[in-house]
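Re-run with default settings, no changes from the original entry. Doing this only to confirm the output is reproducible before filing.
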Amino acid sequence: MKKKNFVTLIMSAVGGILFALGMCMGLIPEWDALKPGVVIGAVGAAILLAMVPVRRKMDGKPMIVLNGRVIGTTLFGVLGAVVLGVGMCMVMVWNMLIFGIIVGIVGIVLLLCLIPIIRGLQ
């Protein structure tokens, strides 16, 4: 296994576990650990975000490349993920089943639209 793949594996595993644990701590009311959960989730998210420039640096590429295509597709992906998350919250937290499913499906469609957008840009 190459060094860059091993580093990516470790960072993604640790970041994913911390992020998931933080989400559980924040969202399971029996645990009563919202504030520590937010901190642990933020640390996990930071590790996952730091994985991208670390991997690019190990590939010999510039750490961050910002151009119109990258920014546009990133914002489109973030928008789709937020809409999907709002739909999930509407169903699970706010007891708005029908509207939550509709909003969630819109978020999924937005995320699926990323595939032809990215494939068309390459």
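Residues 25 and 36 are 7 Å apart (CA to CA). Helices lie at 3-27, 34-58, 68-92, 97-121.
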